[in-house]
Fold this protein.
Amino acid sequence: VQLQASGGGLVQPGGSLRLSCAASGSWFSRADMGWYRQAPGKQRGLVASITSGSNTNYVDSAKGRFSISRDNAKNTVYLQMNSLKPEDTAVYYCNAVVAGRWGPINYWGQGTQVTVSS
């Protein structure tokens, strides 16, 4: 399982970015996918998730501003981030939860830096 995150960068407050996470393998459509973030000195936390059935969930601070989606034909999950704030600055990680023989297995991408600053 490989997860390749991209799309991070430097953006001004109020701006937008779209993160992408490309996954390898035919398991993607069966996986629950998520985006997490980790700011300096803080723990990694969930931003948004989408199940294999495309049910979505967001942390309160992301509701109304971020949108997670998936394209199973492209094995890719996206995070559209609008109205970005300085407090959104963090390294964003893609996560996949795949059913294993003895239970769920977590996989992580390498992270992409998002910096919101004027």
User: Anything to note?
Assistant: The radius of gyration is 14 Å. The first strand starts at residue 3 and ends at 6. DSSP finds no helices and eleven strands in the chain. The CA atoms of residues 31 and 102 lie 15 Å apart.
